[in-house]
Structures are given as structure tokens and as C-alpha cells.
Amino acid sequence: MSVMQNNSEKSKWFLPGILGGLATTMKHLLKNLFNQKKMMTLNYPEEKYEYSPRFKGNHVLTVKKDGSLRCTACMLCATNCPAECIKITAAEHNDPTVEKFPISYEIDILRCVFCGFCEEACPVDAIRLGPEWQTPGVNGANFIYDINHLAYRPNLKGGILTHVDDEERHKAGI
Principal localization? Predict the structure, then answer.
């Protein structure tokens, strides 16, 4: 019994598989060509996908009603971040009732895994994962977001206010 097989017999084995694959491809091509309204593809720049309200996109620093940052530079978000992508530099505040505030708050989006641990760790609701997800950029420096980008970018229309006011927090003991 010979282990070697004839080349003509070997080529016959592949022919049904190739023809089956071509038939499947042609079936999908014709179906999509003549039923374009049923296609799942969106024309991206013109049409946008509707995401759930629970969608977690790019980070947002929330602001108070007076326009200042809600962040108290407690470093809990940076400590809780598994990717170690949050860098905060704190400074003392001029107001004696405020202990400290962030003078530098940076998030390296290329390292971030969008887990939401920073959002959960924050005791003052200062950081959230917002509804935006598009992050175009040319080089790596464009993906390190600072305070101005996180809290005051133009498409946020002046920042995102928190759900609970300071007075309501104080009454609730938060």
C-alpha cells in the first residue's frame, strides 16, 4: 500500500470546498446587493449608532455650579485604576474650607481599559465615563487628556454638572 497519492485525486478533494465557499460568497453578495435596506451596515459619518444611556465612553470631569472642578484630589481614582493611567498633582487651595484641589489631572487614554473603577471609587462624583467615544489623533500626545479637555471641552457645553448638589450631599451625609 502506497502512502503517496496521485496529484489528480488530491486536487479533486479541494474542488467541492472551494465551490461551496464561492457559492456562499455569491449568495451573500447578491442578497446584500439587492436588499440594501435590510443591511446592518451604517453609512458612518452621515449615520450614527444610537448607544445605550449606560454606555461608558471617554472620561469627563464634572464641575460645580460655579464652574470649578468637583475633584478634591483625593487620589482614589488613580489608586483604584488597574491600568495606572491617571496622574494627579494636588495643591493647597486658598480657601481654608477646601483642603486641596488638582492643578494637574491627566488620563492616558491609550493605557485606559475603560473599566469604570475610577468612576466607582470617586467619593464626590468628580469623574464619569461619558457618552463620547470617538478619539481621533495623529500621535500619542493627543491621547493624554488634561483638565481642560476632561472638564471644559466645547462639545460638553461648559462641563457636566453632577446629579446631586453640594447642599443635598451635605444633608444626605455624603
Answer: membrane
Mean pLDDT, the chain, whole residue set: 82
Residues 64-75: what's their mean pLDDT?
Answer: 88
Count of structural domains within the chain? 1
Residue 113 pLDDT > 90: yes
> How sure is the predictor about 158, in pLDDT bands with cuts at 50, 70 and 90?
very low
Let me know if residue 23 belongs to a domain: no
- Per DSSP, 54 falls in state T
| Start-to-end C-alpha separation, the chain | 84
Residues comprising the binding site?
71, 74, 77, 81, 112, 115, 118, 122
Q: How far apart are CA 62 and CA 135, in angstroms?
A: 19
The boundaries of the domain holding residue 67 are: 59-172
Q: Is residue 108 part of a domain?
A: yes
Q: Is residue 28 part of a domain?
A: no
Average pLDDT over residues 21-48: 85
Nearest to 73 by CA among 85, 83, 84, 88: 88
User: Binding site for [4Fe-4S] cluster: what residues are annotated?
Assistant: 71, 74, 77, 81, 112, 115, 118, 122
Identify whether 114 is part of a domain: yes
